[in-house]
Each structure stands twice: as structure tokens, then as C-alpha cells.
Amino acid sequence: MAKDLGDVAWPVSTARLTLRRARPDDAEAVRSYREHTTSTQWLGPLPENFTERFVAPERLGLLLAIERDGELIGDVMVSIGHAWGPAAMATQAHDVQAELGWALRPEETGHGYATEAVEAVLRICFEDLGLRRVTASCFTTNTASWRLMERLGMRREAHTVADGLHPSGEWRDGYSYALLADEWRLRNP
């Protein structure tokens, strides 16, 4: 099975959305909602060199654009990585899991678009990429994110104490969620 987003047949459509690989010309649309307080309250202000960082191949290769009616309304990061394992078994732990993150334009929140998009990304991770585990994390105060993870069947695995530096400058608690391919298949036969 594929282990790289480039091997997936893009675009992927859902009932209301289209997911595709992000392109360099998406930078300004992404900037428009990533600099809004609904994003900066969790992710912090954008760096001055945002566009340069956005188009860097190592970053752009992780992003999927979410479109509704041909218009970019958000993005999902899919960072494929290795699981822990003893050195003698490193190849078995290579590129078997992904970490997800997402952001939407503020006016698009509350309509189920993030749930629909991340649900499609989970299918891509487990079916198309053959991954065994997907994770996501957020601050405990980011209720919308952790509720979305729970709606999708992700399991809360950790409540960390003051481990994340919030854009306010405060160290805050976090939640970590995960879903195994076997768990996903039970929910999606």
C-alpha cells in the first residue's frame, strides 16, 4: 500500500467537500483564515515568512486543502511518521502512523465540514495509505477540536499537564487522541 500522500488518487470527494493536495497558490487563502483569531488563539500568530514556509516542499507535502464548491475553506495536515520500536525492528515501525491537525475559515465552522473532512482523511490514512494508527492533540480548552476527535471515534489517551505553550504565553494542559486501523474498521465495515 501507499505510504505517501502523493500516491493517493486526488482529489477525494465527500458528500459536500473535495480534498486535494495543497498547492503553492493556496498560500494567501490559507493565510486569510490562519491569521484570524479563531486560529491564532490556538496556533499563535503567523510568522512573517509564512508564504515562504508554506510553499517549502517539506511543509506543502503535508497539507491537504479542503474545498467546498471549488473554494478553499480549510486544510488538514497529515504528518506520516514512525512508531517507536527496537532498532532491530525499525523497518516494521517505519511510516506506520500519522498525526493530524486542521483549520477552517471561521465562517465555515459549526457546519460539520471539519468532521466530514477529517473523517475522509482517516479513511485515506487507513485504507489508501495502510497506516496502523492516527493521532491528534489539542489544548484541553479547545473544546471544538477534542469534541471533533471524539465524534470520529478517537480515544483520549492522555491528559498532559502544562506541557504546551499557548500563544498567550501560558503553559497549558493538553489532550492526546488516537485511533487504530482495527478500531476504525469496526466503525466503518
UniProtKB/TrEMBL annotation:
SUPFAM superfamilies: Acyl-CoA N-acyltransferases (Nat) (SSF55729). InterPro entries: Acyl_CoA_acyltransferase, GNAT_dom, N-acetyltransferase. It comes from the Bacteria. Keywords: Transferase. Residues 17-182 form the N-acetyltransferase domain. One of its GO terms (molecular function) is acyltransferase activity, transferring groups other than amino-acyl groups. This is N-acetyltransferase. It comes from Knoellia flava.
